[in-house]
Hints:
By secondary structure, the protein is of the alpha/beta class. It folds into 4 domains: 236 residues, Immunoglobulin-like (Sandwich); 360 residues, Rossmann fold; 74 residues, Immunoglobulins (Immunoglobulin-like), CATH 2.60.40.10; 29 residues, no CATH class. Strands 26-25-22-27-31-32-34 form a 7-stranded mixed sheet, sandwiched between helices. Strands 1, 2, 3, 8, 12 and 13 form a 6-stranded mixed sheet that branches. Strands 6-7-11-10 form a 4-stranded antiparallel sheet. Helix 12 packs across helix 13 and helix 15 packs across helix 16. The termini are far apart. 45% of the residues are buried.
Amino acid sequence: MKKIKILFLTVVLLCTTLTITSTSQEENSISQMINQQNPNQNIYSFDLSLSIDPFDINRNVNEDILNIEKFGVIQNPGLPKLPVRIFTIAIPPDAIPISLNYEITETKILENTFNILPASTPNFENDEYSSIYPSEIYSKNYNEFYKSNNKFPKNIVTYERSGAYRSYNLVDIKVIPFSYMPTTGKLSFHSEILINIEYQINEPLNININRETKNIEQNAEEIIMNYEQTKQWYQEKSTSNQGLYDYVIITLDSLTDTVEPLVSWEEEKGRTVKVETISWIDSNYEGYDLAEKIRNFLREKFPLDEWGIEYLCIIGHWDDIPMRKTSQKMGFQEEGCAETDFYYAELSLPDSESWDMDGDHKYGENSDSIDFFGEINVGRIPWSDPETVQHICEKSISYEKNSDPSFKNNILLLSNFIDENTDGATFMEYCVNEEIHPWMSSWMKTRMYERDSTYDYDYIINNRNVRDVWSEGKFGIVSWHSHGNPFGSGNFISVDDCQYLNDDYPSIVSGASCSNSDTDYLNIGQAMMKQGAIGFLGANKATPYQTEWDDVNDGSDQSFKYFFISSITSGEFTQGAAHQYAIKEMYSRGLWDALKYETFVHGSLFGNPDIGISSNLENNPPMKPETPNGSSSGKTRKELSYSTVTTDPDNDDVYYCFSWGDGDIEWVGPYNSGQQISISHKWIEQGNYEIKVKTKDIFGAESEWSDPLVISMPKGFKIDKIYNIFYELFPILKYLFFNLVVFN
């Protein structure tokens, strides 16, 4: 057996801050076994040089906070809040990782002492859970490091898991580039780390695996730290290798006709669409239950050399098309295991090697090895009633076609005080901070906060204000943060309020609350999909929040919803892609406390996953209307009628705007494209006026103005002028008229 080193690769993490520290050399070599060696195969290896510099320190009276760009902060209760990140390394296809080795090649010992606080025990966005969350983990971790002379962490680099993203074979490692001694306050920064990966592989190496589509490759480049190295293992995709169906709908037999408008729209956008029914999958695939059969179907069809699936839209209630019920729950819960559609997004390995490794049909146990990079973007329309599904499909199409910025770039922000130290408005303001997100400068924002909030607001948060403003307004995005339950959030929104929401302008809704999508009930997320929303992201069980949250690295539900909202408002993500991006960022930055439970609880998005605030298909404006046709002269205070007509290239219905030249502007409609219309108007004053018309389609795209028609309201010889002349000539008659006729 030979050991062969095949590559040396340098990876540099660029940060933007600078801290001046003393420097020393501290060698530290560690080897960690991953899998048993096969004595009949050669061992290959390659090196990665990880350079992490610089960082910044925010020194406060009671706490010192360390920050490194694109790193998160440790969330495990009782452990020091040091920067952490999961790095993902690609190895050759079919390779089996054998060991992880690392050597610290440069260490900076920081001057002075530092007070790095332990991560706190999370609270819950459902009041009944906050006081009963167990503190045993916090106490154990705190005593191990803050009550002893132990240095944290024990290992700077640790093996996390093996996994995959589409065709890429991956190894995840956790890096905490600091060493901290809580009892002395001493802190060291490990700025240079040499990482070595050993693996075995069947020879010869198969290099005939195709690279993925452009969108998938962009995601892979963001995920994989040695992405450039993978080019030696994968060949470029030719056009003949394009997948057959990149958008798949799984639904009920009773809904196949109902979803046809959505199929047509996705195809118009350029998607290749395939509709499969649950009955067909149930009959043609094996599995322990229907959920596993669905996942086996998707695992077979998602690769590029099969269908090349990128989006999955599940259309049906979870009683008909099940989510995967997992074994994950919080320690205090007697019932309420998390259910999740993430099971259908994470497709890297079969259940027997991932979600159910021991075959006991308890899915997603701590011992089960899943990864956290979804191969496909998944959303669900959570109704099985044909009329409701048809309505959701139609309003989803209308939302995506609409390009009106007063709707699509308009966000409603709703929050309560979560506890005495946590104003939910802090989270809202972070999401729309224009320094962090420059695109938000062009957005309209309506804020509803508590009366005592330190932030400016437009309305005090209460049920009446929320219902009135939301029902009368048009908001492309709605975000809230409050305590919650399956039936609503805070004191401001409930299932009963959905009937009043403006479904002509439905929203993508993000609910940072407990249990808003709880599958044991007709929950507020499901109700809003029926009226008020075209997308809803909420937790389907109790979920922790972070007290005093004011930064993305504070973690928990707020950070997850931040990644979702910020990516959606950027206009660069569909809601399905934004959902998977948020899951990836929370994992890579280590921002969950209970990784599997919280991922599963937040792993189900309601709505068509291929919708964003940007219109994916160009919406053409109507043609220039004909010059208004009608009389070119008239009399004041007498109505005249004028007609015009236009056509819309997309055959959309159109509104007409008449400018009458006297200051009056009148919108009418909508009318069918090509339908001639006639509108009446009357003028009060004499003079000449220009009548012109413009149009807009039902999605907000406007035409240019028509050529004008000039109309004249000429001055007439009025009877009151005759009276005035007569009275001037014969004043005695004016006296006699008023005194003898009028007053007698």
